[in-house]
Amino acid sequence: MIHEQIIEVDGKAFNVAVGPENGPPLILFHGVTRRWQTFMPLIPNLMMRFQIFAIDFPGHGKSELSKRGYRVADYVDHAETLLNTPPFSTQRECFLYGHSLGSMVVAELAGRLGTKVRGAVLEDPPFHRMGDRIGEGPLLDYFRAVSQLAGAPDGLPATARKLAEVTMGTPTGKTVRLGDVRDAAALRFTASCLAQLDPAVFEPIIAGQWLDEYDCQAVMSAIACPTLLLQADMAAAGMLTDSDAEEAEERAADLIRIKYSGCGHMIHAQQTSKLLRHVEAFLESVRV
Question: Which parts of the chain register pLDDT below 50?
Answer without folding.
Answer: none
